[in-house]
Amino acid sequence: MKHLHYIITLILILSAGIAKAGEGMWIPMLLQYNEKEMQEMGMKITAEDIYSINHSSLKDAIVLFGGGCTGEIVSDYGLLLTNHHCGYDHIQKHSSVEHDYLTNGFWAMNRGEELPCPGLSVIFLREMRDVTERILTGITVDMSEDERQAKIEDNIKKTIAAIEKETPYKVSIKPFFLGNEYYLLLNEVYTDVRLVGCPPSNIGKFGGDTDNWVWPRHTGDFSVFRVYADKDGHPAVYSADNVPYKPAKHLDISLKGAEEGDFAFVFGYPARTNEYLPAVAVDQEANLIDPITVDLRGKVLDIYNKYQEQDPKVRIQYASKHASIGNGWKKWMGVTEGINHFHGVEKKQAFEKDFQEWALGARNRYMYIDLLNNFEKNYKELEPYELAYTYMAEAGLRIELINFAGRFAKLSEVTKDTPQEDINRMVDNLKTTVKNFFKDYYEPIDREVATMLIGEYLKAQPADFRPDFLNDIKDVDDYVDKLFSKSMFTDEAKVKDVLDNFKAKDTKKLANDPAMKVYQSMIGFYRSEVYDHIVSLNDNIDRMRRLYMKGQMDMQPDKRFYPDANFTLRVTYGKVEGFKPQDGKTYRHFTTLEGIMEKENPDIYDYVVEPKLKELYNKKDYGRYADKDGTMHVAFTASVHTTGGNSGSPILNAEGQLLGLNFDRCWEGTMSDLIYDPDICRNISVDIRYVLFIIDKFAGARHLVDEMTIVE
Ligand code: ARG
Ligand code: GLU
Predict the structure, then answer these.
(1) 490-513 b/e (C-beta count within 10 Å ≥ 16 → b)
(2) Mean pLDDT of the chain, nearest integer
(3) Cβ partners under 8 Å of residue 324, min gap 6
(4) What number of other Cβ atoms are within 10 A of residue 607's Cβ?
(5) Confidence band of 20 (pLDDT split at 50, 70, 90)
(6) Which of 65, 139, 227, 326 has its CA 20 to 30 A from that of 122?
C-alpha cells in the first residue's frame, strides 16, 4: 500500500506539468482566460466570438431545451437541432397507431405541418454577471450556517428585485464553486416550439439500450424543432399568427468533418458534476454505493431479459423500464471501473496529504486544519443512512407492486374532513395511473424480482436497522407468494372497482392491503430513522465542501479552476480522438454506415435497418455528405468533458462551425463526473453530415437543409 502511494505520488509529480487537454466546464463570460490555450490547441476564433454581450456571438444560438437537454439554432428561421432522445417525449405524445412517428419518423414538408408541443420550452441566455460581492455582503465567518443561508437568500431576493426593474428578461442567481461565487443569469424563455422532423427510431435510437454508453456507436440521435415568436421576435404563447424566431446568430455547418487531433469544443448545459470531492466521498460513491446499485439493478435486468426474450409482448412492456434502469446501471459500472483503473481515490488521498501540510503551514489557514478529518467523520456517519436509502430505493421500491401500492397512500389516508373535490381529483389521477400500470405489468416478472430483491435487502441490512416488515419474514418465497396472492394491487379489476365506487370506508381496505403495509413500513422507517440524519449530515458536508473548494483555490492560486456543472451554459474543449479503453484494445474516433450494416439483425429490435437506408447504402448515394474517404461517417468521439444535460449540445470545430451533436459518453470514462482522465474520458457525437444525409437523402426534406448555412 505504501509502495503504491509512493508510485502514485511520483506519477502525479511527473504529470503535473502536462496540460490536461479536455478537462473543464468553463463559464462562457470568463472564456478570455482560456482563449490562449484554446488557440494553441487550434481554435481560430476568439472568446468574444463565442460569448459576447456587445455583439452577436455563438451563445445566441444555444438553448436549454425542455429543461434537461441542449439545443442549437441552425437557421435564420428558428430551426433547432437536438437529440432524438431529447425530443422523444414530444415525438411520443404526437404518436398514435395511425401516426406512429416513433416507429416511422415524421417530417413536416412545410411550416403548416409542424406540430405544436405544449409544455415544451427553450431558454436563451442573454447575459451573465458576476454578483458574488453583492450576494456575500454581510456574510461573516462567525455566522451559523442558518444565518448565512438566510442572509444570502435575502441578498439574492433583493438583487433579483432590483435587476428585474431594469430588464425584460427572467432573472435568476445561482451559486458556483459550491457557494463561493454567485452569478446572475438573464434568460429569455420561448414556449412556442414545434416539432419539424425526426428519423424513425431504428435510426434515431439505432442500437437502443444495448449500445447505450458504448463505443463503437451508430445512433442517428437527432430531431428537428422550430422556435416561434411574436412578430417582434418576443416570446409568445402558441398562436397560428406567430412567426419563426430570428436569432441574433445561428450556427454554420461544416461538411468537412473532423480529423483525429483536431480541436473541438462543446457549448451547452451540463447538469451536475462533483469534481472537488474528498477521497472519502469518491471512495464511498465508487466503491460502496454504486456497486450495490449496479449489482441490484443487474439482477433485476437479468430477470427482465429472461422474460423479454421469451415473449415479444413482454419485451415491449418492459422496454422503457429496462431503458431507465439500464442507463444508470451501465453508467455507474463505468464510474467504479474508471475510478479504480485511474487510482482516483489514491490520487485524491495524495493531494489531501499535501493539502493538510499546506493548511498546517500558516496560521491564517487554521479553518482548513480539521476539514479532512471532519469529512472522514461525516461521510462515515452518513454511510448507514445512505445504505438504508439505497436499499429502500433500489430494492424496496423497485418492486412494482410495492411502488404501485404506494401511489394509493394518500387516498388511503383521506378522512371525513378531506374535501370531496380533492378526493375526486385523486381518484381521477389514479385511474390513469392504474391504466398505465397494468398496460405494462407482467406479474411473473415482478414476483421473481420481489423474491430476489427482498432476499438481498434482508441479507444486507442489519436486523436492528431496517424496516419492520423485513423482520417478520421467515421464508422469502413463501412471504412473496402470500404478498402477491393477497394484495388487491395485482388485480386490475379489483383496483378499478375501488376507484369507480370509492367510499370513505375503502380507505381501510387500501391501508390494510399487505403491499400497502410493506410500503408504509419502508416509508415510516425512512421518515423516522433516516431522513433527518441525511439532511443534517449533508448540511455539514455542504458547508465543508464550500470551505474545501475555497481551500483548494487558496492553495493553488495559479491553477485555473472551473465550477462544477449546475445546469448553466458552459464551454468545454478538447480534441477529436479515439482511445485505448484497455491494454491491447484501441478505438478509432469515428464509425460509418458500414458498421450499421455489420450490426444489422432483423430479429433484434435494436438492430433493424430501414430498407431505404440500405438502398442508399447499396447505391452509395451519399451526395455531398460523404467523407473524403468516400464513406458515410455516422458518429465520432472526442476528449471533451461532458455530462448529462449536454445531450443535444453542438460540437464545433476550430472555426466555430457545427461538426455534430453530442449525445453520450463512453462508459469506460463515465467517472468524468468525479474525476476527468484525458486518456479514457470520451464524449460521443453524431456526425452532422449523417444528420443532413438522413434529412435530405433519406427523408427527402431537402428544404430544411436549404435553410441552413452549409460550409462545404
Ligand atoms: N446514455 C445517454 C444519456 O444519458 C443516452 C440515454 C438515452 N438513450 C438510450 N439508449 N437509452 O443519458
Ligand atoms: N445522454 C446524456 C444526456 O441525456 C449525455 C450523456 C452524458 O451523460 O454524457 O444528457
Answers:
(1) beeeebeebbeebeeebbeebeeb
(2) 95
(3) none
(4) 19
(5) low
(6) 326
Kindly state the cell numbers that stand for 573. 474543449
pLDDT of residue 10: 43
Ligand 1, from 664, 684, 685, 686: best to mutate by most atoms within 8 Å of Cβ?
A: 664
Q: Residue range 408-432: average pLDDT?
A: 95
CA atoms of 156 and 647, how far apart (whole Å): 30
| Closest residue CA from atom 6 of ligand 2 | 664
Confidence of residue 244 (pLDDT cuts 50, 70, 90): very high
| 643 CB near ligand 2 (under 6 Å) | yes
Separation CA 161–CA 151 (nearest Å): 15
Look up residue 355 and give its DSSP letter. Answer: H
Is residue 105 within 8 Å of residue 81, measured between CB atoms?
no
Angle between helices 371-391 and 443-460 in degrees, nearest 10:
140
d(CA 87, CA 97): 19
Q: What is the pLDDT of residues 28-45, one digit of tens each?
A: 999 999 999 999 999 999
Cell of 708: 441552413
Question: CB count, 10 Å around CB of 329?
Answer: 23
Closest ligand 2 atom, residue 85 Cα: 4
Distance 222 CA to ligand 2 centre (A): 13
For residues 590 and 258, give the distance between their C-alpha atoms in angstroms, rounded to a whole number. 9
- Residue that the C-alpha cell 468533418 belongs to: 257
Three-state DSSP at 145 gives: helix
Q: 271-314, pLDDT tens digit by residue?
A: 999 999 999 999 999 999 999 999 999 999 999 999 998 998 89
Total-model pTM = 0.92
C-alpha–C-alpha distance, residues 438 and 493, integer Å: 10
Query: How far is 667 from 650, CA to CA, in rounded Å?
Result: 21
Distances (CA, A) of 185 to 26, 63, 194, 365, 481: 15, 13, 26, 33, 55
**What is the pLDDT averaged over residues 620-645?**
98
Say if residues 121 and 189 touch (Cβ distance below 8 Å): yes
Task: Enter the C-alpha cell of residue 118.
Answer: 405544449
The whole-number pLDDT of residue 403 equals 98
3-class SS of residue 194: strand
pLDDT tens sequence across 578-595? 999 988 999 999 999 999
Pocket of ligand 1, candidates 69, 84, 85, 686: which has the most ligand atoms within 8 Å of its Cβ, to mutate? Answer: 85
Decide: helix, strand or coil at residue 125.
strand
Spell out the residues 6+ positions from residue 341 whose beta carbon is closer than 8 angstroms to its own.
680
Q: Which three cell numbers stand for residue 580?
A: 485505448
Ligand nearest to the CA of 648: 2
- In sequence order, what DSSP letters do the residues of 203-218 get, joined into one string? HHTTTHHHHTT-SS--
User: So what's the pLDDT on residue 92?
Assistant: 87
Residues with C-beta less than 6 Å from any ligand 1 atom: 85, 205, 208-209, 212-213, 323, 327, 644, 647, 664
Contact 692, 194 (CB under 8 A): no
Q: Which residue's CA is the nearest one to ligand 1's atom 4?
A: 644
Under DSSP, is residue 197 helix (H, G, I), strand (E, B) or coil?
strand
Atom number in ligand 2 closest to CA 646: 10
CA distance 298 to 214: 17
In 331-378 the beta strands, taken as DSSP E runs, fall at none
CA atoms of 376 and 457, how far apart (whole Å): 26
Contacts of 631 (CB under 8 A, 6+ apart): 592, 593, 594
Q: In terms of DSSP H, where are the helices of 184-278? A: 201-204, 208-211
Place of cell 482560456: 34
| Cis ω before 216 (30° cut-off from 0) | yes
